[in-house]
């Protein structure tokens, strides 16, 4: 409308000039006048408020379990911004709330709603908690309507930020923020949130915007269409279901030594690690410890034993199977409809019968001096006892401690209850096939579904390369002692030998995995990470194969995991009205001026034209024009 109003006087001017110009005049001038209205039309289409900042944001995961919705259900965002300093009782149903992680207290959020109910029941005065706690309680626990939620994370959790210098003074704060983020993530991924939820990282641009928003909120000038302020816009289509997500499993062999050459009847030791992750934001779920550390350990162990097995004199009488599995966060279940069998189903029946035991690796990169060996069979079982004695013996030599932990599972009917349906450890899949297995982990207890599977807090800064090195040495030495039936104090992988753990190799792969999100439903068959893992395993093992399976149908995931947040500083309605009044006044004056000047120009032109004709008639006909 404004462009049309601005253009009308100019179009009027052009029409009058065209009607009054002399025949034969150049068309150049008329062409220039014709371009003026078009120029104003283009200028009027330009957004009057430029973007104050453009920020990469990462959406909270959206998924369904058996049709039950979880996570953030909307991706598009277009609302004014607000902070925790907004006035009490403010309507935030059409506002994007910005909350820095540092200002949260999740432990209070979880109990705040229950405390309110108790206080109401006992008719007690309820003590209000901090604003961040109240906001999280109202808008997540109680599902109060909100325009959107933006959570700011410290840069230490950003895998794209590069190497950061971490001092001893930062360790305590990092641990506090890590625990806080773990609790926040647990709260978010198990909630059904009917508005957009995004994560972003702290940096100068967004912190400057947040400071302005907080200052305005404190002064009672919250951003609204009336007051103006900052507006957050994420242009994203409606999230769509991922069609037929694929699980990819990779396995490689190191055949043992048998005189007659038939290695099928040799006993087999399986070393297994799940490489995929799950987190609140799929685009940020790198899982440096869970389970990047397990993958790194498996690759280094494969490299060490490939050196041993390359020489017939040192090749053991055991086959070694190395398996990189997918679907770990999803009950380790691959595609089988009964959730019991995954990649192991692809093995030949004779092979499954030759597996002596399987050792699964999980979260072995952030422990101090104690690891846990989780088993499903009773500790009194001869095979379990033998495995534990091997590991605990080597651990003692290395100055470490390994503790055995038994968790009974229901093999016959895994769906008696929800707790038995959730498969806590990967070795439980082997146990369901009556194969002796154990999981070595830095975690003392089994995580719940979608917990500790590559969360936002699981970054490379909190993983210890030395812890991974000691874990690798423990596992490799324990397996070697089992294969070669060694006695104590005979280290095969001594630090000063050619079979020492290669820290540069460990660091290289840990860095790659700490920078690569790998949530399985978002990985393709030909994903570069899958190709890199297959290639690396093929460097150290034989007969490397890849199996592709569909993710179990009970899990449904949605796209739109990453977007660009545009932050605009927009004017208030009052400003728009004043601007409209000023432009209207200007147009009235301009239109009046153009009308008057074009009419004067026409009169002058007509007067000059009549005088010219009269002079011509007198000169050539010697009579005035009215006598001809």
UniProtKB/TrEMBL annotation:
Question: Mind telling me which residue stretches traverse the membrane in this protein?
Answer: 577-596
GO BP term (any one) = regulation of signal transduction
A single Gene Ontology CC annotation of this entry is:
endoplasmic reticulum membrane
Q: Does the keyword Lipid biosynthesis apply?
A: no
Q: Answer whether the UniProt record assigns the keyword DNA-binding to this protein.
A: no
Q: Which UniProt keywords apply?
A: Endoplasmic reticulum, Glycoprotein, Membrane, Signal, Transmembrane, Transmembrane helix
* Topological type in the membrane: Single-pass membrane protein
Q: Name one Pfam family in it.
A: Nicastrin
Compartments (UniProt record) = Endoplasmic reticulum membrane
What InterPro entries does UniProt report for this protein, alphabetically? Answer: EF_Hand_1_Ca_BS, Nicalin
Q: Which family does it belong to?
A: Belongs to the nicastrin family.
List the PANTHER family hit by this protein, alphabetically.
Answer: NICALIN
Q: What is this protein called?
A: Nicalin
What is the scientific name of the source organism? Linum tenue
């Amino acid at each position: 409308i404004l462009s049309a109003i601005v253009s009308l006087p100019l179009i009027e001017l052009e029409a009058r000039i065209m009607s009054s110009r002399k025949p034969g005049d150049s068309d150049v001038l008329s062409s220039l006048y014709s371009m003026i209205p078009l120029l104003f039309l283009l200028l009027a289409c330009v957004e009057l408020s430029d973007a104050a900042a453009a920020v990469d944001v990462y959406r909270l995961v959206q998924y369904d379990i058996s049709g039950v919705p979880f996570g953030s259900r909307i991706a598009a965002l277009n609302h004014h911004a607000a902070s925790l300093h907004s006035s009490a009782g403010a309507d935030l149903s059409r506002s994007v709330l910005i909350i820095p992680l540092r200002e949260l207290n999740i432990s209070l959020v979880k109990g705040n709603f229950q405390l309110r109910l108790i206080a109401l029941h006992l008719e007690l005065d309820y003590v209000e908690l901090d604003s961040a706690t109240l906001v999280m309680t109202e808008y997540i626990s109680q599902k109060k309507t909100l325009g959107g939620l933006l959570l700011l994370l410290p840069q230490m959790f950003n895998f794209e930020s590069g190497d950061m210098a971490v001092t001893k003074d930062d360790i305590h704060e990092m641990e506090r923020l890590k625990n806080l983020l773990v609790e926040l993530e647990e709260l978010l991924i198990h909630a059904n949130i009917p508005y957009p939820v995004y994560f972003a990282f702290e940096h100068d641009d967004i912190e400057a915007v947040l400071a302005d928003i907080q200052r305005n909120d404190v002064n009672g000038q919250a951003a609204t269409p009336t007051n103006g302020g900052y507006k957050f816009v994420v242009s994203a289509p409606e999230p769509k279901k991922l069609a037929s997500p694929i699980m990819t499993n990779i396995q490689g062999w190191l055949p043992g030594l048998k005189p007659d050459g038939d290695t099928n009847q040799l006993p087999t030791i399986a070393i297994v690690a799940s490489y995929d992750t799950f987190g609140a934001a799929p685009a940020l779920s790198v899982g440096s410890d869970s389970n990047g550390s397990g993958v790194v350990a498996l690759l280094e162990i494969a490299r060490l034993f490939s050196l041993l097995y390359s020489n017939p004199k040192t090749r053991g009488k055991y086959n070694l199977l190395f398996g990189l599995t997918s679907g770990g966060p999803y009950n380790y279940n691959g595609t089988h409809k009964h959730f019991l069998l995954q990649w192991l189903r692809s093995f030949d029946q004779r092979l499954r019968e030759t597996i002596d035991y399987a050792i699964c690796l999980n979260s072995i990169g952030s422990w101090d001096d104690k690891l846990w060996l989780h088993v499903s069979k009773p500790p009194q079982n001869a095979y379990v006892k033998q495995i534990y004695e091997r590991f605990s013996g080597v651990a003692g030599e290395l100055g470490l401690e390994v503790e055995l932990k038994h968790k009974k599972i229901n093999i016959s009917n895994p769906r008696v209850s929800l707790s038995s349906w959730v498969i806590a450890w990967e070795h439980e899949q082997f146990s369901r096939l009556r194969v002796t297995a154990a999981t070595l982990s830095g975690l003392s207890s089994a995580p719940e579904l979608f917990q500790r599977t590559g969360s936002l807090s699981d970054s490379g800064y909190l993983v210890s390369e030395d812890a991974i090195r000691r874990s690798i040495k423990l596992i490799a030495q324990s397996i070697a002692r089992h294969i070669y039936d060694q006695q104590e104090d005979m280290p095969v992988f001594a630090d000063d030998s050619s079979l020492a753990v290669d820290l540069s190799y460990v660091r290289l792969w840990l860095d790659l995995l700490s920078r690569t999100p790998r949530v399985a439903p978002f990985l393709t068959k030909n994903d570069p990470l899958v190709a890199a893992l297959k290639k690396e395993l093929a460097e150290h093992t034989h007969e490397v194969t890849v199996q592709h399976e569909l993710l179990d149908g009970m899990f449904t995931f949605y796209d739109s995991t990453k977007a660009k947040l545009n932050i605009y500083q927009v004017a208030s309605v009052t400003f728009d009205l004043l601007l409209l009044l000023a432009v209207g006044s200007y147009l009235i004056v301009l239109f009046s001026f153009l009308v008057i000047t074009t009419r004067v120009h026409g009169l002058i032109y007509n007067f000059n034209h009549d005088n010219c004709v009269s002079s011509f008639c007198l000169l050539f006909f010697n009579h005035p024009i009215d006598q001809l």
